[in-house]
Each structure stands twice: as C-alpha cells, then as structure tokens.
Amino acid sequence: MSNLTVSNFKKALLIIGGAALAGLIFLVVGYFALKAGVPAIRNLSDYNPTQVSRIYSDDGELVGELFVEKRIVVPYDAIPQHVVHAFLAAEDAAFFEHGGLDYMGMLRAALMNLRPGAHLQGASTITQQTVKTFVLGPERSITRKLREIILSRELEDMLSKEDILALYLNQIYFGASAYGIEEAARTYFGKSVRDVDLGEAALLAAIPKNPSHYTPRTDREAAKQRQKYVLTQMQEKGWADEATVKTFLARPIPPALPPPPYLGRAPHYVEHVRKLLVEHYGEERIQHGGLTIYTGMNAKAQVAAQDAMRSGLEDVARNQGFKEPSLRVEVDRYDDLISFMHGKLDDVLQKNPPKNHVVWDLRRVTGELLTNRAELAKVLRTAPLVDGTRVTAVVSEVSVSDNLAWLDLGTERGRMLFKSMSWARKFSPTSRTTPPKNVSDVLRKGDIVQVQIVKVPTRLKDDKSKTPFLEVELVPEPQVEGAIVAIDPQTRFVRAMVGGYDQERGTFNRATQARRQPGSSFKPIVYATGLNESVITPATICPDSPVAIRDEWTGKVWRPSNFEDNTFDGNITYRTALMRSKNTCSVKLMEKLGPDKVIAMAHALGVQTELPRNLTLALGSGDVSPLELTNAYASIAAGGQYAAPIFIRKVVDTNQSVLEDTQAVLTQVMRPSVAYVITQMMRSVVEEGTATRALVLDRPLAGKTGTSNEARNTWFGGFSPELAAMVWVGFDDNSPQGRATGGSHALPIWIRFMGRALDGVPRRDFAAPPDVVFFKVDGDTGEPSEDVGSIEEVFVAGTEPTAKSAGLKPIFDQDVTGTGPN
Hints:
This protein is of the alpha+beta class. The chain contains 23 helices and 27 strands. The strands form nine sheets. It has a five-stranded mixed beta sheet. It is elongated, with a radius of gyration of 36 Å.
C-alpha cells in the first residue's frame, strides 16, 4: 500500500472516528436534553401532585374547594381490579406484557406520518401517557415523542407496573375539573372509586381519550358509545362475562349529579377562610396541598343567613324603588341576536338533553358580550324549571294596552303582570318618587332583568310539552348592601357570615372589611361600663331633658338630641333609657364615665378598631366592623367572657396529621353579674322597646337597634343564650337612607335569620349568676316598692336600693348650663 493510500486511510479513519464521537456526544447531550424538565420519580414516594383542599362546615358539609387541579390521590390497592381492567381495555390491553413501548404501533404511526398533510401521531401506551402528563407543553412534535420514548423506558426500569398504573390513574384528566380516578368517581357518581361498579368503571375509562367529548356532562350519547367500546373490549379480553356486559350496556348513562347542597352557599365565609389559610400556610400549600379544613360554620345557619340577607335587602329595595336596567338589547338588533341565542340553546339541549324542563339564564351576559357572539355562546346557561326559580331573562314585548310584559325564557314565554312591579317607582332611598302607572313606566323591549317563576303549571311538570306561558315576577336588585355575622358565645365558632347581597358584585366582605358607625347598637357597651363601675343600676334615674354639655375632650359645647323627633320624657330609669334608645342619657353617662373606660370595655369585649376619645362615642360614632361588634355582644352573652372568633376549627393534611385544632380560650373581662344585668336591660329593647318585632321568635332574646346620622348605617344586634348575631344595612358609599332605622331595615333580616338558625334548638333562658339580686321597685322612679304595678328589677348584688331615695342618686339632673358636671 502506498504512503498516499495509507495517509488517506488514516484520514478517513479519523474523520469516521470524529464523526462517531461527535454523534455520540450529540446523542448523549440530546438524551439529557430530552430528559430535562421532567420530575424525577424513582418511586411512588416522589409523587407529590397538586391536590384539592376542601373546606367543611362544623356539621360536615362541603362548603368550599381550593385548587389548581381538583385531585385526591389514592393508592393502587384502593382501586378495584375491574376499574384497572376497564382502563387497560380502553387504553393498553398489553400493558403488563410490554416494556413501556408498543413498537409495532409506533411503526404504523410512523408510516402514517409520512403521508402528505398527515398530523403527527403515535401509538401511546399507558406508560407513555403517564410520561406525557409530566412533560411540559401540549405540542405534538418529534422531539416530544422522543422524550416520551426515552422516559417511558426509564420509568419502566424504575417503577413496577402497578406503580405506573397508580401514577397514571391519579394524574390524568377526566373533564369537569376532575383530575385522577378518585376525584372523577366523586364528580360523576358521588362515590369513591372503591365503590364504582363495572359500568361506571367503563364510563370512567372512556373519558381520558377525549375529556371534552366523552364525559356524561358534555355528550351523553358519545359517552355511551365509548362506554360500549370499553365494555366490549373487556369481554373480549376475558375481564367481564357476556351477561354482565349486556346488563350494563342496557343501563342509560346516569344524569349529572347535582352539586353538593352547600357548596357555593358561603362565598364570603370561604374567601375569608382562604385568606386566613394563606396567611398561615402560604398560597402554594393551600392551592396544591390537599388540606382538609373544618370551619366553625353551621351549614344550616349559613344558608339561613344568605337567604335572610337576600330577601331582606330585596324588601328594602322594593321600598327604595327600581333602578333602570343597566343591560338592554337594542331594538334594531333584537330579532337577530335573540335568534342566534335560541340556536345556541337548541344545540346545547339536543346534544345533552336535560332530564326535566329548563329555561335559559342570562345572568353572565354583559354589555361587551352582546357584541361578541362567540363569547356570548359560552356564557349561555340553563336553570331547572321549578317553582321559585330565578333567572335573568330578556323582555320580548311590552303591552301598554294589557299593562303587562312578555319575557323570553329560552324554552318558554314568561308573562309579567303590572301588579308584580307596582312597587318599581324611580329609585330614591331618601324620598318617595311617583309610583308607576303602567308597565311601560318600568320596562322596555330588550331589557335584561332578573325574574322569578311564580309557579310551574302541573302539566309542564308532568310532560315535556310547552305551556302557553309562565307567570313571572320582577325581582328587585338592591342598590343597598348588608352583612350578617353569627357567633356561638361559648365556642366562639363563627356559625354564619354574609358579606353582601351577592359576591358576583365583588369580593368585598362587609362583615369583616367594612368599618361603619354602629349608632345606638354601641350603647349596651356604654351602659355595661356604667354598671361595671357602679355608676348606674337599671333603676337609676336619668333626666331625659335638653342639655348642653361642654365636651372636655374636644372643648366644644354639644347639645345631644333624641332620635324620635327630639322628644324628651323627663325622669326615666336607665332601663327605660336603653329600651327607648335615649341619646341624652347615653351622653350623660359617657360624660360621667369618661371615654377611656368605655373604650377599654369595648376593646376587652372584642372591638379591635381605634375609637374616638370624646362624648360622641356614646352614640356610636366610632367605626367598627360587624364581626367586631358581634363578638362584643357574644362576650356579653357568654357572661362577660371574651375569646377571639374562630373561623378555622381544624386543619388536617393528606397524611391525616392535624396541623391545627383551635378551641376558644375564654377570658373573664366583665363580671358575670354585670353581663347578666345588661342582658336583662337589653331584653327590654326586644320586649317593650324598638325591637318588639322579634317577639315573634318566642324565646328569650336580648338586643339593640342602631341608626347612625341620616340613617347612613342601620344595625340590629342581639343574642339568645345559644347564638349572637349582628346585621348591618347601608350603602357602600355611605349615602343616607332617608327615614330608615335599624328596626325597619336590619331587624327584619335578623328575625328571619334567627328564626331559621334556632329552629329545633330547645328554648332556654339566660342563667342568672349567684351575685345578682332581684328586687321590687317602682318602674317610674326606680325606688323600692311593694305597690301594685311595681316591677321586679335585677341588680348586681350590693347595688340594689335599700329604702326610698337611698339608691344611687340621679346624675346630671341639673346640667343645663353647658358647663359639664359639677
């Protein structure tokens, strides 16, 4: 061989070797690049997926869910074999025989991909599908397929077949926000995967191929056909016998389960709990960690609060008038747009026929969506047609001659008589505007309004034929807002909380975030301080008379007046003064005590905000939240014991470890005797004073109304031995409400709520502590009396009068000079 030939041969070897080395380096680098970004799962203990955190009421009802992916992880041995077989039949019958890859299937797919215009595809085993769920990005590419192949082989080397199946069944998506087999079983059948039958297993196995198409909620017919395929495959593979398969094929797809009855009924409460959890555990753990949270809520009480707030504010709205609808389909676009919406509704109903009658609900429609048909179709919803159903619908016709309006309900027509909207005068909370005379004074064609179906005709309930029309009523949409808080005095569990009329208006929680003047509902704290300092008793005389007082804390002269037309009753007892909500007596008592003692008492009972250090505090000029004031009342109801309100009772993680378990720590901040006496004085408000409407509840109750200046805030707070509750009603911008009072606006809501919350709770009285005495006095003078008409008064032991004119003397009886107390 010549030197030239040898030289060329060496060069060729070097080139080939270099190319081989470069290729090897490329393959190694490519291999690790393809592996990058994938979670390293070497055993099941490495698997820590996102799981749903669930929030429960104290009585075990599901009230909220926090999640990015709604999932509950279950071990492989908790999954029945017929469920495993269903998925093998649907996705990968040879799973236990292959090494993670279906080479023949991959070859067929590769040949198909060579065809012009072909979409990239590939045969995916369960192992490959498992890997897919951990590879970021939805793209379909050769690079991704190579990653699947490499990682599938690696996964098969590291994990057992059972472990891979456990990963797969816990990780995949099943539609309807459900991830993993356990959550899917709960979502579609209301049961654990441990309890699903063969037909249900086949239906679950049908879904992952196309979760947007094969779910029972999306297309029941398509889901049935896919279920049939799975059952047939199970029979062919020997995993189910023919008779069993026929039995389940004959069964229809079950209708969609109704949501849990209390889920979504406590939006403000759940959001407040979420914020508390985030403060303590962080957003990541709450949204991903699968925590179980038990709250202090009572589900029945919460729903009662929601309903009471809604109906109560609607009653207020009827009194304040009707604001013109903010959303309207213009007449020149009406026919075309409504026809489009009907077509979309027909598509939905044909694709997934409802079991019973439904009507459409346009509550998610906005002005922007009226000009965007693609998005409009996405927000079209239906509601079951039952008595009392509320939906948002469109006015299709206004008949001036018949004095009625017709509404398009999608599947039905609604007739609205004028009498159902006769309340709908022009909105004004401070004055009486002219009542409407005709339906045309209230509505126009194209208006989108909320209505309530009065009664569904019997014929419509019995079959699916249309009725000529449904009777509907106009639902007032309150401009005013409100809040309710209810607390168990002994446990301090927050039993119910509502932060507004509807959270769809916004997430602002008026129960915890709003600070408003409580008006006279603050007076029990002033009076309790007077009792605690032995400055007054219930029988102490206060001269209810005009007075000018120099406020030494502000330096200004102040002439407090009474709410009721500035009337004065002369000498009255402090029990009567609280019962009639006399401002003069409260201010005079505040002057004697000084603001500091009252502020200290308010803070000890549970008010946390800073309060004004002047005499106006006697009339509730300091801003407080409904939650704070409710807890202060709960402290009185608990015999003068304070504890912080409890929203979160217990938190448990996925390992069943208890992360927190909170119980009330009660601290005595007011003598039990003082708490009992102020409670008895507050009972007079209910039994004889400004809250006598509450007598309808027929149980021992104590409470106090409150109305701030110009009725910008109206309140009622009260309690039974079992429950303390506070209601606030007002405008978010602090506008006046005219002649509204706590008794007219807040009290009816409180009564509705307490009536339902205490339904079935045994009636019991407030227990008297040992250091109080009952003593007969003259109800007008407060002096000891055995005469006919005398009353039995309660006193802190040692403060009762022992003889006529021997009790504590009246205070401020001569203070009309404007110079303050002597």
